[in-house]
Design brief:
Radius of gyration: 25 Å
Order of helices and strands: HHHHHHHHHHHHHEEH
Low-confidence stretches: none
Number of helices: 14
Number of strands: 2
Helix content: over 70%
Strand content: under 5%
């Protein structure tokens, strides 16, 4: 009887541990492996010499025997990659700033001014985000050409908000809901205007939401491909996602080392940007969805 009673807790403990392993840790390990393996492969390929890249029979494809900086040196000093990186940075910052400004005003008007049909306006703005860029880029290309902005990075700054503003507005609407309206009512009683309330009360409290919208806008602007491919033609004005594909592939020859080095270096600014503001990003999403 005593043996049976001591065996039962051990069995239950083992079942609980095995269930936790199967339900939690195994899926988590698979997720991390699938998520991080492309970055590992980019890193390995970027530092491999050509002899190892094209000879899997003599070299391990998942490891580096003789690391080299040849591909990074070629990318930085034999191509216009620094200029592509600078163009991408300026376009992303410009589009993010314009999108945040427009989204803040739109979200505040929809959520706080409480005009008739404001909920439907917010829904319509979010539905605009669901329109595929492949449908919009044809009429946008016509407008860009008519304005004389073809092959100009400024065209991307004006075009990117078409898909950034809808989502950022929806995100900020949800975050503005979490800010007590009584604070603004007290300010109105004291004689403050709407712009003063927005600048001195609402925006300081909505900093996590603004940071989250900024991260979203910056990331999408940095990685955008279709508009940058359609509206930019000259090599010096291209952004990183387009340039590394169009300038480092000649015919059917793929310069894999330089391609992976360009992809790795192009992903670092976004990763660094995320690492500084990840706490604000999570808290803003919580504030956006809790209502």
């Amino acid at each position: 009887m005593s043996n049976a009673s001591t065996a039962a807790p051990e069995t239950m403990h083992w079942d609980s541990r095995a269930r936790r392993m199967v339900v939690l840790w195994l899926p988590l390990a698979c997720f991390v492996l699938i998520l991080l393996f492309p970055f590992y492969w980019m890193t390995v390929t970027a530092f491999k010499p050509d002899a190892e890249l094209y000879d899997f029979g003599s070299h391990n494809p998942f490891w580096i025997t003789s690391p080299t900086l040849q591909h990074i040196r070629k990318l930085l000093f034999e191509t216009a990659y620094p200029n592509w990186l600078l163009t991408t940075m300026l376009v992303s910052i410009g589009a993010t700033t314009l999108s945040l400004f427009s989204s803040t005003l739109a979200a505040y008007a929809i959520q706080r001014l409480r005009f008739r049909g404001s909920q439907y306006v917010g829904l319509a703005i979010y539905l605009a985000y669901l329109v595929p860029p492949s449908i919009l880029f044809i009429p946008l290309a016509t407008m860009v050409v008519q304005l004389g902005l073809f092959d100009s990075p400024f065209a991307l700054v004006l075009v990117y908000p078409t898909f950034l503003v809808p989502f950022c507005t929806w995100l900020l609407i949800g975050y503005f809901k979490s800010i007590p309206y009584e604070l603004e009512e007290c300010a109105l009683i004291d004689g403050a205007t709407r712009l003063q309330i927005l600048r001195r009360i609402t925006l300081p409290l909505a900093v996590p939401g603004l940071i989250s919208a900024g991260i979203f806008s910056f990331t999408l602007s940095w990685n955008e491909f279709i508009y940058a491919l359609a509206f930019i033609q000259s090599s010096e004005n291209k952004t990183v996602p387009v340039a590394i594909l169009t300038e480092l592939v000649t015919g059917d020859v793929y310069q894999w080392g330089a391609l992976m080095a360009g992809s790795l270096m192009g992903s670092l600014p976004v990763a660094i940007f995320y690492s500084f503001f990840v706490d604000y990003y999570v808290s803003s999403l919580t504030g956006a969805v809790k209502e």
